[in-house]
Amino acid sequence: MVRAVSVGGGAFFSEIARRGWVSTAMANGTHNNGRGEGERDKPPADEAALSARLDRLNHRLSDIRKDRKNQTDQSGSGAASANASAMARGFRLSSELIAGVLVGAVIGWGIDRLLSTSPWGLIVFFLLGFTAGVINVMRAAGVANSDASDRS
User: Fold this and answer.
1) Contact 135, 113 (CB under 8 A)
2) Is 109 exposed, middle or buried (0-12, 13-18, 19+ CB in 10 A)?
3) Taking CA 142 as the corner, what is the angle to CA 149 and CA 106, rounded to the nearest 5 degrees?
4) 117 near 140, Cβ under 8 Å?
5) Are 97 and 133 contacting, i.e. CB atoms less than 8 angstroms apart?
6) Which residues contact 41 (CB under 8 A, 6 or more apart)?
C-alpha cells in the first residue's frame, strides 16, 4: 500500500493516489496486475472510488485552509494588538509593584537619616512599600476590589 504525506495543498497526495495502482502492480511482480492488455491503464473500480474520495477531501481541505487563512488575515491585526495589550498590562503591573517597593524604601531611608534609627526605618517602610505594591497589583489585575480595602 502506498502512503504519502500531504505536501503543497494535497496535490502530491492525490497524484500518488491516482498512480497508486501502478505501484501495487509493480510490488506484486507483474506489470498488468493480472489484467488484460487493454485494462492495464485503467485502475480497478474500488481504487477509482478511492481516488475520487481523495480528490473531494483535497478540495474540502483546500477550502478550509483558505477560510482559515482569511480569518487569520482579518484577525491578524487584532492578535497583534491583543499581544501588545497583554504586554502593556504586564508592564503596568510590574511597575506598580516596583514603584511601591521603591517608594517605601526611599521613605524608610529618609526616616533613618532624619532620626538616626538605621536600619529599622528602611526595613519597616520597605515591607510597607512591598505590601502597598502587592495590593496595587491586585487592584489593577482585578483580583481585589478597590472598594474592599476602603471598607476595612
Assistant:
1) no
2) middle
3) 60
4) no
5) yes
6) none
Is residue 88 exposed (0-12), middle (13-18) or buried (19+ Cβ within 10 Å)?
exposed
Report the predicted TM-score, pTM, of the whole model to 2 decimal places: 0.44
Query: What are the pLDDT digits (tens) for 112-132?
Result: 999 998 899 999 999 999 999
By the 8 A CB rule, do 17 and 51 touch? Answer: yes
Distance CA 17, CA 47 (A): 8
The C-alpha cell that represents 139 in the structure block: 487592584
Q: Give pLDDT, residue 68.
A: 86
Tell which residue, 2, 49, 45, 5, has the closest CA to residue 25: 2
Residue found by looking up cell 481504487 in the block = 47
Alpha carbons 56 and 62: distance in angstroms, whole number: 10
For residues 119 and 108, what is the distance between their CA atoms, to the nearest angstrom?
8
